[in-house]
Amino acid sequence: MKNRGLRKVSAKWVPFFCLAFFLFGMLLTSSGRMWTPKQSDSRLVSRLQNEQQQLWSVSEGITTNQKSMEDKRVLAEFHKTQAAIQSLGRQVSTLKTEMAAARKVTPPDINLPSDRNHFPRKKMFIVIGINTAFSSRKRRDTVRETWMPQGEKLLQLEREKGIIIRFMIGHSAKSNSILDRAIDSEDAQHKDFLRLEHIEGYHVLSAKTKIFFTTAYAKWDADFYIKVDDDVHVNLGALATTLATHRTKPRVYMGCMKSGPVLSDRNEKYHEPEYWKFGEDGNKYFRHATGQIYAISNDLASYISTNRQILHKYANEDVSLGAWFIGLEVEHIDDHSMCCPTELDCELKAQAGNACIASFDWKCSGICESVERMKEIHEKCGEKNDTLWTASF
């Protein structure tokens, strides 16, 4: 019965079934191979994407680090530049301070060759500048023959009393003119000139006064600086003794103080072109020392030297000097012994042993006909010969 239920497979089908099973196996194998690469590609893509993201992250990190490093470098350079600017600022400030101090000692626009021979400045008591002109040789000679020591006596006065006396004069408009050569020759003979970097002229006396104080301050460290005209008689002993009483005072401005009218008429001798600055017609100037002779202390000479470039010059030099001090804490000393008349007044005082510091005629703004009369005035109004040398100051 069992044998009747089973069918026998013909031998001719065996090869066919073998081939079919073989092909089916190949198909399964092939299918497995086809699915595997797909799965591998997916993993590869995923891996590549991960690596790319990592690369981007690294790249961004590097870029960020580079930017951070660049920012730090720029900041460091900024701080260095700022520090350099601050250092330069301090150096400039220091230089300004040094220049300001140097200007008080060596004014930059004063270029006298002899300046180099006087540093450091020699301490003196008084420096007297006698204002003179090219045409005033005879006036200078009468001064030398009367109240101004000469030769060895002039040097002795400097050594023992600390008093410097020089005729102050600038130059002519033409370089190395006959006028300049004449002054050079006279100076070689007497050695009593102070040459100024100034072009001579009557209408520039304010500028000459400023340059005199600047130059004198640059050369000598004096307690007082004095300007006097070459037609004024001076008693040096009386001058030195009086100044000694004011030696400890700061900012002293001494002379015969006046307050003359401001002249608006251009035909007047002392016409003031800037008269309108002093108010209405008929007004007077502020108090100032008359121009024949005046004295200023060291502080005021320093002030003129330091501020010379911005000090305004009026037509009259005595007004200019007074204007430079009018707004400062300056003691104005009105001493009328610096402007004694030559007629009788100075003679009586000299006989009484109280000789005037300076004498001149107001009507002439100096001693009238000084070349002829200076010796006469000296004999009548002069102090005793030994007064200067025996005086203690």
Automatic annotation (TrEMBL):
Protein's name according to its UniProt entry: Hexosyltransferase
Highest taxon of source: Eukaryota
Transmembrane segments: none
Lineage: Eukaryota, Viridiplantae, Streptophyta, Embryophyta, Tracheophyta
Pfam families: DUF4094, Galactosyl_T
EC nos: 2.4.1.-
InterPro entries assigned to the protein according to its UniProt record, in alphabetical order: DUF4094 (IPR025298), Glyco_trans_31 (IPR002659)
Start and end residues of each DUF4094 domain: 10-104
Localization of this protein: Golgi apparatus membrane
UniProt similarity note: Belongs to the glycosyltransferase 31 family.
Keywords assigned by UniProt, alphabetized: Glycosyltransferase, Golgi apparatus, Manganese, Membrane, Signal-anchor, Transferase, Transmembrane, Transmembrane helix
Keyword Transmembrane: yes
GO cellular component terms attached to this protein's record: Golgi membrane
PANTHER family in the cross-refs: BETA-1,3-GALACTOSYLTRANSFERASE 7, BETA-1,3-N-ACETYLGLUCOSAMINYLTRANSFERASE
UniProt organism field: Cucumis melo var. makuwa (Oriental melon)
Topological type in the membrane: Single-pass type II membrane protein
Gene Ontology MF annotations: beta-1,3-galactosyltransferase activity
Main location: Golgi
Annotated metabolic or biological route of this protein: Protein modification; protein glycosylation
Broad enzyme group: transferase
